[in-house]
Amino acid sequence: MPPMRVVLFVLLWFNFFGFALIGQTQLPKKNEINKLTSQAAKLRQSGDFEKSLLISRLALQKSITIHDNVLIAKNYNNVAANYNDLVEFDKAIFYYNKGLNYANFTQNDSIKQKINNNLGNVFCFEKKKYEKGIYYFKKALEYSEKIKDSAQMAFTNLNMTWAFFDIGKFREGENNLKFINSYYQKYHNDVTIVVLNMLNGMYYNYKNENEKAELYFEEAIRLGKKMNEKSDLSFCHLEFSKFLLKQKDYKRAYENLELYTKLNEEIYAEEKLEKANIEGVNLELDEYKRTIDKIENERNLQYQSLKKSRIIVLLFILAIFVLLLFLNSLIKNNKFRVKSNADLMLANKKLIKANKKAEESSKLKTQFVSTISHELRTPLYGVVGITDLLLEEHKELASSPHLNSLKFSARYLLSLVNDILQINKIEENKIVLEEFTFNLTDEFYMIKNSLSFIAQNNNNKVYIDVDPSIPESLIGDKLRFAQILMNLVSNALKFTKNGEVRLIARLIEINKNMHCIEVKIADTGIGIAPLDQEIIFDKFVQVGRKEVDYQGTGLGLPIVKRLLELFGSKITVESELGRGTTFTFCISFECNPVKTIEIINNIQVDLTSSQVFKVLVVEDNRINQLITRKIIEKNNYSCIVVDDGFKALEILDNEEFDVILMDINMPLMNGFETSRRIRQKGIETPIIALTAFDKNEITEEAIGVGINDIIVKPFEAIQLFKIINCLILKTKKLV
Known about the structure:
Layout: H1 3-23, H2 30-46, H3 49-65, H4 69-85, H5 89-103, H6 109-126, H7 130-147, H8 150-166, H9 170-187, H10 193-206, H11 210-227, H12 230-246, H13 250-393, H14 401-427, E1 436-438, H15 440-450, H16 452-457, E2 461-466, E3 474-476, H17 478-494, E4 500-511, E5 514-523, H18 556-566, E6 571-576, E7 580-590, H19 593-602, E8 614-618, H20 622-634, E9 638-642, H21 645-652, E10 659-662, H22 671-680, E11 687-691, H23 695-705, E12 709-712, H24 717-734
Parallel strand pairs: 2-4, 8-9, 8-10, 10-11, 11-12
Antiparallel strand pairs: 1-3, 4-5, 5-7, 6-7
């Protein structure tokens, strides 16, 4: 016989032997236990709690013997109901919960409904734990709906309504009350009619429909008297007295309160008689509790004795089974390991490809931003330059709204390009803070003057308040600091009309040479909604555009936030709609007189000269040629313009120049290659790159080919001549 068949034969034999042993004992029948359960319930209802508990104990023992969870739950429910009637609510809750545990192992929704309803009654009306009680009522309703027992649904809804109304939650109990009313209209069940009328009275009292409320209260009292429902009647008098007190009918309110007290005394007298009997049986009741617990222990011991003879065989079978599982697991694990290694290698290859794609995407993004900025700055140089030339050559056009609008639009577009480049550089960690010496008050006034046009346009006043204890000379990256202020103050001015903007600086802390300064920019503008305050520092987010177009790229505040992070600082915002906004940040600057003098000494002085210099301009764009020539000749310099690098090399073979202005992006031969070939010829003439590329992107390559300095288009004429003079004079001194 094969080994597996032997194992199966042993198991079948052992199970047959075990069931034979159990079958030797005569088991009780369900009909017998059901009769005992019903008898115990009737005895409890008649007030014979001692006999009810004795019979419940016997029925519970028999139920446990046949392992019938439904009968066990019913008898625990009986025991709990006895303790509930004996006003021992903690014991009642204990046994209700035991019954519910067994009921939950069954599919019998009826017993689950009953126990949940009973627990709801105890917690709501005896323990006054309404939230817990309402939870059990809701569970009871779920089971009532499953078994489609409308009577139980009505009864549970009645209890839940009463619980809600007791704690003043009339809206929550409104639907439950509607259900009971519709149920009564359909079935005319008089069991709950007294309480139903009382609840209707309470509801219409809450709704301030006084006539209806009074009619329902009076009907409840009439029916309570007729049906001799003392407990329900007492509550009707109590709620009616509350209603009358609210109506300031003090006499009738007092009369009903007196009736409530009288009925309670009668009920209390009856309870005292019951409690007198309770004291005599308390010891026995405690014994019943111990006996009920003992029944389950005996059951466990009985089964353990039957199992002893099977333990060795079961352990042997389990050991074999575990061994087989272990061997099977080893085989599966080995297969899984091989498959996992193959999957891991495949995933690793995919990850390498994805990483390469991500790097390529990042490079393409940087290249795209650089190309777009160049393509935008080149025509912008022409627009801004021609506008400036027109304003200078034709003074009568200075007041022209069309020309001023053109200039403003070009500047605005340039600001957009700069914002995009700035946020891109910050994200790629390409910005390094520099050290300059500056005066905080001067910076504030510079910002105020720069934005005076926006202030005047919106009829705003700008106030500056600087703590006098802040040193006059600070060291830090004033350009980035000014950019932070510029963005915040311009925002404040744009979103404020006929109001004021304040720039406030306070010295917070001094740590050695570092001075921590708190800066606030406060306005009286439209304010920012609380929800918007969480997103205003995200890129391209704009708020407050419902009624007025405030313009902007949505990059100003993200740039501010990231620049402050470079300074090791954070920004906070406080705002109220219609009242204004305040941005606050703390930033530390160094104050060191010795270091300040060194920085000042290293600053290049703007050298001016009355000497006429000869300038070679290498530029392929016709408009840019015109603008650059006009700017240079206006300063009394001589200027020659060539279209490409080859012509530049050709003219340099025949003529000498004091400085060369070199465009970078040219056809045929770009500015880098042209500069390299100029240096290869041994020509030392200073070369200044005039380009629309970002300076940081081309600095390294520019130095490598011999370019002396870089100016980004569009530029200020003063900046150009300052660099030209400095480079020419420096070159002549070296010669």
